[in-house]
């Protein structure tokens, strides 16, 4: 059985002190964790400090985004080379907030994924449908296009290292959660696409996280689904107790 992967997306939240305290608490509480993979994704500006705090621990640090070029005249952007340099192992690519507020297309996301691999970062690719797309019964079509265009040109070896986060946009930060059955169904569909394109082994080893208002009270039913291999947690990852509770559920189920 593969390890569940619980990652916290801190988004544009916390002060430096709060981020440091949260990282220290997770480091101390999860010092001996081995049944579950855990990661945190702080804002760019806190990455170096959080990486230092978590150095030598078992907790991964990821960025929430990166630019598609490795260096150059791109004022205000941060490259994968820089992320690797400060100690990141992961990077979230194509979060729905990036797609929605920063016009990230599947083609941009595809370029970012390729650059992330070339910087030796492990991407977490977010996919998911909007409410109106679900209502129009277009979930599979939307997620299918996000995957086929997003993964275009990637090798099986690269896709094997990928984490996919299925995050229905209507469930992010809204308190609405997909039912475990709804989530499991889309996860199975995603795994089927991966199997068709990259074969059974890759499909079985890739981890598909669920994201969208995951909290300690719903973690067990979601993480207990056979196709769900972890969670990308937004709001509930900002509080150490609630994030640790979700990690404990994953440990209990492993
Ligand atoms: C997210 O932003 O990836 C997310 C899932 O947020 P929340 O848990 O707050 O819905």
Any overview of this molecule?
- With about 250 residues, the protein is of the alpha/beta class.
- The chain is built from 12 helices and 8 strands.
- It has an 8-stranded parallel beta barrel, surrounded by 7 helices.
- Strand 7, helix 11 (about 215-225) and strand 8 (about 230-235) form a beta-alpha-beta unit.
- It is globular, with a radius of gyration of 17 Å.
- The chain starts with a strand and ends with a helix.
- The relative contact order is 0.15.
- The structure holds phosphoenolpyruvate.
- Phosphoenolpyruvate binds near residues 212 and 234.
Poorly predicted runs of 5 or more residues: none
Using the coordinates above, name the CATH class: Alpha Beta
**Percent of residues in helical segments?**
40-55%
Which small compounds were modeled alongside the protein?
Answer: phosphoenolpyruvate
Question: Alpha-carbon distance between the termini?
Answer: 8 Å
The CATH superfamily turns out to be Aldolase class I
And the CATH topology? TIM Barrel
Number of helices: 12
Helix-strand makeup class? alpha/beta
Order of helices and strands: EHEHEHEHHEHHHEHHEHEH
Strand order of the largest sheet: 1-2-3-4-5-6-7-8
Rg, rounded, reads 17 Å
Strand content: 15-25%
The biggest beta sheet is recorded as: 8 strands, parallel, barrel
- The rough form would be described as globular
